[in-house]
Amino acid sequence: MEKYEKIKVVRRRMFSDERLNAQNECQVLKLLNHPNIIEYYENFLEDKALTIAMEYAPGRSLVDYIQKHCNSLLDEDIILHFLVQILLALYHVHNKLILHRELKTQNILLDNPFLHNQCLEFVRICEFLFVHPPLED
Fold first, then answer.
1. Where are the alpha helices (DSSP H) in 1-137?
2. CATH number of the domain to which 87 belongs
3. Buried residues in 67-104 as b, exposed as e (16+ CB within 10 A)
4. Is residue 2 part of a domain?
5. Contact status, residue 55 vs residue 41, Cβ threshold 8 Å
6. Which InterPro entries does the record cross-reference, listed alphabetically (predicted)?
7. How far, in Å, CA of 107 to CA of 91, rounded?
8. Nearest CA-CA partner of 109 in 90, 122, 92, 91
């Protein structure tokens, strides 16, 4: 694990059906290479727990962002900024014949890279645990 600078490690001790779902998530993440989707690195068993190594997103979730702005409406430009990135990610996912069944504000992560001297939130979709993978031909 030393080879990754920033990763998120998900360790799961689980029943066989949960393990199958987690392994399914790994297979799906391998197919997805898009800037608005959390990057998958590898998975392995360690101490009888499935460990998934994936990109670390240091920001917050969309639900945290919304709650922080609870007493005011979000600016239309900000909503459009988020929506475009979410739709680009979903377009990529759907082109791979994958259906994300648990897309919610908790599974949309925001990061703050400074682009052209502006602080813009960068959207990353995560948690592909409950997905429909592509069907075999």
1. 16-31, 62-68, 76-95
2. 1.10.510.10
3. eeeeeeeeeeeeeebbeebbebbbebbeeeebebeebe
4. no
5. yes
6. Kinase-like_dom_sf, Prot_kinase_dom, STK_NEK
7. 17
8. 122
Contact assessment for residue 105 and residue 61, using Cβ atoms and an 8 Å cutoff: yes
pTM of the model: 0.77
Query: β-strands 40-46, 60-61: how paired?
Result: unpaired
For 31-62, the pLDDT digits (tens) are: 899 999 988 888 877 776 777 788 877 778 88
Strand partners, 108: 125
- Is residue 1 domain-resident? no
Q: Which position has the token pair 């997805």?
A: 32
The β-bridge relationship of strands 118-119 and 114-115 is antiparallel
DSSP code for 106: G
The alpha carbon of 73 is separated from its chain's Cα centroid by a whole number of angstroms, namely 25
For 27, the domain range is 7-132
* Cα 77 from Cα 118, distance rounded (Å): 14
Cβ atoms of 37 and 124 within 8 Å: the answer is yes
Average per-residue pLDDT for the chain? 77
